[in-house]
Amino acid sequence: MKKLLRKSFHLFLLLCSYSVQRCFGATDTITTTHFLKDGDTNITSPDGTFEMGFFSPGKSKNRYVGMWYKNIPVRTVVWVANRESPLTSGSGILKVIEPGRLVLLNGTNNVVWSTNTSTSVQNPIAQLLDSGNLVVKESGDGNPRNFLWQSFDHPTDTLLPGMKLGRNYVTKKEVYLSSWKNEEDPASGDFTYHCDPSGYPQNILKKGSDVVYRSGPWNGLRFSGATSSRDSRFYTFGIFSSKTEVYFGYNLTSSVITRLILNHKGVLQGWSWGEHVHDWIPYLSVPRDNCDAYKLCGAYGICNSQTLPVCGCLDKFVPKHYEDWQKADWSGGCVRRTQLNCLQGDVFLKYLHIKLPDTRKSWLNMTITLEECRNICSKNCSCMAYSNPDIRNGWSGCLLWFEDLLDIKQVPDEGQDIYIRMAASESDSLEKSDGKEENVLFWILPLSAGVILVILSMLIYHRRRKKASELKKKGRSGRNGNYSMGYSSCAEEFEIPLFDLSTIMKATNNFSIDRKIGEGGFGPVYKGILEGQEIAVKRLSRTSTQGESEFKNEVLCIAKLQHRNLVTILGCCSDGEEKMLIYEYFPNGSLDSFIFDDTQSEVLDWHKRFHIINGIARGLMYLHQDSQLRIIHRDLKANNILLDKDMNPKISDFGLAKICEEDDVEAMTNRVVGTYGYLSPEYALHGKYSVKSDVFSFGILVLEIVSGKSNRKFSHPDRNLNLLGHAWKLYKEGRSIELLDKCLGDSCSTSEVVRSICVGLLCVQQCPEDRPSMSSAILMLNNEGVLPLAKQPGFYIEGNAPGGEFTPRQYAQSTVSETPITILAAR
């Protein structure tokens, strides 16, 4: 009876409100007695692809009218009507009213949300189309495009095929994506994604009013900043311009289900539905790397994600602020090393394969040639550069810049060319069109190169003779009882204090046994008090076979390095056979004493662990990319990570580290050193090491920190797997969260845990080329971008080797001491 009365009441409201009301149906047939009501049957598009109804995101109790894919088991919301005005009660009605508006009423019959239709019609209807477009139109109107209102003009965070992002010059309306606030609140968040038509069209991602990413201008085939053309047989995409509108969009060429979404973390992700895996598969994620950060390198700086550091100045430019540049603060950008002088005549230098600079304040003419473009730019002293905007069917059009060039990126093979205004004195670097000048260069260049080679050969010869003489002197000094390492000279060169032996003995109570806090391959470590400060003293053991070289290496590697996630060396001591290094003291000791101890592990909640993972990553990135020297640690492990009083991680023990040249990709050695369970396959088996060797060790550390298990000691009781094998199995089965240390319970962020495990597995992949750089690993750890699928890890162990033999792939499972080991790999 109550149900009947409730239906009668709603019908009464419907009849009394307006003389004619239209509503939705599951097909194209629309009747006057149905409307979408919370709790009733949802609305379905004619082909059954999309569905509309009321929903509550996540654990929220608020109710929204939304649209999602009907036949996909993972509810994926693509549009929300009342994103800013949720229903807080348990009832709501969505209906069409005259003069053609779509309204959402709450339980008290008040309008919560409505469309802004201005045109009046007598018989309005609403339809959910197969494309996912919700439209309001006049009943009986046969024009398929004559809509009073459509949801495609009011997107939320998702771009569907057929939608347009851009600006209509007639209506003055802009259509853009805006992220949700969070996973449970679809209200407009901090990030928006636009097709910006100002200057020359390009897509930009904003946080508030600040640009954080720029695609680069559309060149007719792809975006200028794209690292690949991303051509696909499933869809076509691009920016399209006319006199009335400019917009970005894409259309399907097959039956694949795909969508673009701007998530609440500010990452634009492309997803396609995989029928074979019954899940969404990522195919696009931007920003993609550090070089996608808007104007990271400042004016006239160029970003290259394949170099370390990533920022540099364009050729013929120099850093504007050298001191900031050395500190990896590139925001000041670069300036011409020779100032322009338009009155005396400037020239244009050609730069190849780049993402064209920000075009929002550029000038465009598609009807003139490149030569005409050059003439226009050269006659205007404010014109800084020119280029071709369209690369289809040859190069055409003219694009001019009149301000500093911002957000330039190196894009090998697929970037565009640009001509930048330079002082006339820089013309020696330009390609000459005069044949006589080319002939002069033909003779001058080889002769100059020959002279330079002769001079360099003489300098190298002289330097080698001088170095040999110095080594002979040091060798004689060593035989007389003086330490050949030369601590005094090291102290002078690296500007670190040189302490007397008596001072250190007093600080450590004569190296009392109760002051001993550890031991390594070099010798014991003592705690001391020096001038009121707690210190740690590394004392070279007289019986150590590697300690002397390791000590020297440690000074060379870290004396000049300054980073919050690296240990700080305070000084050294050399007196006869006593050799010592003095460091800051860390009261919490090493990481392994926490994560591998059942009691201590409870001290490290997930927040602290995630903080430690990020700190280690930042320290490694500094060593690999941002420090004065490129350093490969080669012995990264849990007991070489020290924790200060605030649990901030510090990478320590650089005795086995190697200093590499900037352009060194990898190196080889016959003496493989390191610790079982942390060595990468290519290093342990073939002696090849690179920064990717450290990345592998970092991946092991991540899995150990998350699980609280040691890779060298863990063995799954049922599956006979080591830690890598166990993590890999869980990852493939979609159960990565089960790797989490049991003591953490449910207090952690599940998404952060799963993301950390995935990043850890990406870092331990068999091939070094598959592993990410540390800058990429940090980016993946700290945003919601789509992660690539991990491949099988190196030293993945499952089951016993045939006949009980110990194979190279199983070496990581053996139990060894904590000290560094030396493996002589077969050559």
Structure described in brief:
With 827 residues, the chain is an alpha+beta fold. The chain contains 14 helices and 47 strands.
**Percent range for β-strand residues:** 25-35%
- Give me the secondary-structure category: alpha+beta
- Average pLDDT taken over every residue: 81
Strand arrangement, major sheet: 26-25-33-29-34-31-32-30
The CATH superfamily of the largest domain is identified as Transferase(Phosphotransferase) domain 1
What percent of residues adopt helix (DSSP H or I)?
A: 10-25%
Q: Report how far the terminal alpha carbons are from each other.
A: 88 Å
Tally of extended strands? Answer: 47
CATH topology of the largest domain: Transferase(Phosphotransferase), domain 1
Biggest β-sheet description: 8 strands, mixed
CATH architecture term of the largest domain:
Orthogonal Bundle
Q: List the uncertain runs.
A: 1-33, 429-443, 467-489, 799-827
